[in-house]
Amino acid sequence: MSIKFLYDRQKIAITYGEQKISYADVIKYVNFYSDFLDIEKGDRSALMMENRPESIFSFFSIWARKGIAISLDAGYTVDQLAYVLGDSEPKYLFVSNKTKEVAEAANSKLNNAIKIINVDELQMPADYKIKQEEFSNDSNEDVAVLVYTSGTTGNPKGVMITYENIETNMAGVRAVDLVNETDVILAMLPYHHIMPLCFTLILPMYLGVPIVLLTEISSASLLKTLQENRVTVIVGVPRVWEMLDKAIMTKINQSSVAKFMFKLASKTNSMSIRKMLFSKVHKQFGGHIRLMVSGGAKIDKNILEDFRTMGFRAIQGYGMTETAPIIAFNVPGRERSDSVGEVIPNVEVKIADDGEVLVKGKNVMKGYYKNEAATKEAFDAEGWFHTGDLGKMDGKYLIIIGRKKEMIVLPNGKNIDPNDIEAEIMKNTDLIKEIAVTEYNEQLVAIIYPDFEKLQAQQIVNIKDAIKWEVIDKYNVTAPNYKKIHDIKIIKQELPKTRLGKIRRFMLKDLLEDKVEAPEKKVEKKVIEVPSEIKEKYDIINKYITERYNKDIDLDSHIELDLGFDSLDIVEFMNFLNSTFDIEIVEQDFVDHKTISDIIKLVEEKSGITNEKVVEKVDKNENLKKIIDSDSDVKLPPSAKYAKVLKFLFSPLFKFYFRYKYSGKENLGEGAGIIVGNHQSYLDAFMLNNAFTYKELSNNYYIATALHFKSKTMKYLAGNGNIILVDANRNLKNTLQAAAKVLKSGKKLLIFPEGARTRDGQLQEFKKTFAILAQELNVPIYPFVLKGAYEAFPYNKKFPKRYDISVQFLEKIDPQNKTVEELVEETKDKIAKNYY
Question: Is 0.85 topped by the overall pTM?
Answer without folding.
Answer: no
